[in-house]
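Risk register update: the risk of archive-format incompatibility is retired. Evidence:
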Amino acid sequence: MRIHALANLFNFELGLNFSRILHPRSTSELPHIAELIIDGEITVGTLVPVGCVAIATDGHNTLAMLKRRGGETLAQLLTRLDLAFGKAFTQDVFTDEINTPQTRAADSILSGR
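Archived output:
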């Protein structure tokens, strides 16, 4: 019952058809994530001070780290994560939107380095 209440909240608040995640008919919508979560994991949440992020790891390495864009729905963020993981898996191109040069420069200023 609680899961379905949360699903209704996600459907309304985030514009995501959560019931399709709870009861998927196929994995074709997010094929790379479907493959990844067999042995790896994805994390979606708030990372202070960055904001909402989505991260894909294979258990050993971080393969993609995305920052949620303004106005981006959860479904759009997960689609971008799926594509970024696909790029890491097929082309060895790793996406990092969290540790940008601007973020590292701000960290250096704040830490006095």
